[in-house]
Predict the 3D structure of the following.
Amino acid sequence: MLPASPGNDARYPSHPLHDLCLFRLGVHLGELWHLSGLADWLHANGRNRFLLMAPPLRLPRAVGSPATPVATA
């Protein structure tokens, strides 16, 4: 019998990094952000670096919060 692993056991999530980051640690992943406007601005101004901060929205006594991303070039 094979040991339990993501390939042969339905108990494992299909995206283990998402499960770990989003649900267990509360870390938001920035893979769905649309940064094309920022990329266009950086290119037009001869820049290639920026600082992206994504602090949580301050909601006292809340369990979760959407991220409020801010890019500083």
Observations:
- The beta strands are 51-53, 70-72.
